[in-house]
Design goal:
The protein is mostly helical and about 375 residues long. The protein is globular. The two termini are about 35 Å apart. The relative contact order is 0.22.
């Protein structure tokens, strides 16, 4: 009898929050006047927006639900899941990022495909664009499934309902303003994430009896407390995942919107520091879940279980909003990559080279809708 009102409140707050994100995206979208604004935000993003849009994109399903599950299963060594992203981001900040931004500004590059043609050939651009589009569609579907999991926990919504809700949300604000709207929406999402996890972690820890209860539990394996290698987690993630955060097309294209090298170095550098600090949070939550729920059927259910059953309702709702924000911000980054790949790298380059800025902007917005629908259908 007491669960239904709590669930209804959580769902109402998530829906209100979603409406706010859409409203902000639509407001920013009114400032978009051409394809340059849509693709690279008029090359006017400062360090703060670069920081927030990168960190928001990097803290997604894998860095919340996935990393918590790894902490539950493997222990401290799961830190390297997000820690490897921090190391890759540091390389991006100090080396690759500023160099790519300068190339983009000097040659009016708007996508990674533009750079590939500039550096290699049009055929390389076309092949990579097609492969990127197909791969990104699957990644988008995965992010939408993660969104559906949150709505299922909150309201028992079927998977398809959650996927549709997530797909519609990111499609509306992404199609309205592209990178510019996404950067501002990501700033709000990042704030919710940081506040939500900062409050949820100490309360979850207190709920199981403090750190003494965590450190005193019987670990599932002897290497559970080994920071460098535990289960399948550990330093190996640096080699497997680190490079992706140096050369990811989705991240590089965000840097094309930076106003200068300083914005890249500071924004991406702050993002790396943020990832270093955040990396331990989902791991600790996973270990707390191991104490409170030692026999979960799936490690990936550790975070939703803590948020719904291990915290006061109001704090759990804030935590759910944080995870919901994480999935949305990662999903919109993938959707933006799909949009730019099809509209700029394929349509503008090979189908209609003479298309003007307004035509390309129209196709970009239409492509966002189509890509969002396809990602939802695949999910």
């Amino acid at each position: 009898q007491t669960l239904a009102p709590t669930v209804n409140l959580q769902l109402a707050l998530l829906l209100a929050y979603s409406a706010g994100l859409v409203g902000l995206g639509l407001v920013i979208g009114r400032q978009v006047r051409g394809a340059k604004d849509f693709f690279v935000a008029g090359r006017g993003l400062g360090p703060g927006l670069i920081f927030s849009t990168l960190l928001a994109a990097n803290i997604g399903a894998g860095s919340t639900v996935g990393a918590t599950g790894l902490g539950y299963r493997d222990g401290l060594a799961a830190w390297w899941w997000v820690g490897s992203a921090a190391l890759g981001s540091a390389v991006l900040a100090l080396w690759i990022g500023p160099a790519m931004r300068r190339q983009a500004e000097a040659h009016d590059l708007r996508t990674v495909g533009d750079y590939l043609e500039h550096r290699y050939s049009a055929s390389v651009r076309g092949i990579v664009a097609i492969l990127l589009w197909l791969g990104s569609l699957a990644i988008l579907a995965g992010q939408l499934i993660a969104i559906s999991t949150i709505l299922n926990v909150v309201a028992g919504a079927p998977k398809w309902v959650g996927c549709v809700v997530g797909g519609v949300l990111i499609t509306i604000y992404s199609s309205a303003g592209g990178l510019k709207a996404g950067a501002w929406v990501n700033m709000v999402q990042l704030t919710v994430k940081m506040v939500g996890f900062a409050i949820a972690l100490p309360l979850a820890l207190a709920g199981v009896g403090g750190w003494a209860a965590v450190s005193g539990m019987t670990p599932p394996a002897a290497d559970y407390w080994n920071f460098f290698s535990g289960g399948a987690s550990g330093l190996v993630y640096v080699a497997l995942l680190g490079p992706a955060f140096v050369v990811s097309p989705g991240l590089l294209q965000k840097l094309y919107g930076a106003r200068d090298d300083r914005a890249v170095k500071l924004g991406v550098g702050w993002n790396a520091i943020g990832l270093f600090l955040y990396a331990i949070i989902p791991v600790l939550i996973g270990m707390i879940a191991r104490v409170k729920f030692p026999n979960l059927p799936s490690p990936d259910s550790a975070l939703p279980m803590i948020l719904v059953n291990g915290l006061p309702a109001a704090i759990g709702t804030l935590g759910l909003a944080a995870v919901f924000s994480a999935e949305l911000s990662s999903a919109d980054a993938v959707l933006f990559m799909l949009t730019t790949s099809l509209s700029q790298d394929l349509y503008k380059r090979f189908v209609a080279p003479a298309a003007d800025e307004r035509q390309v902007l129209f196709v970009a917005r239409a492509t966002t809708v189509v890509a969002g629908a396809l990602g939802t259908a695949v999910a």
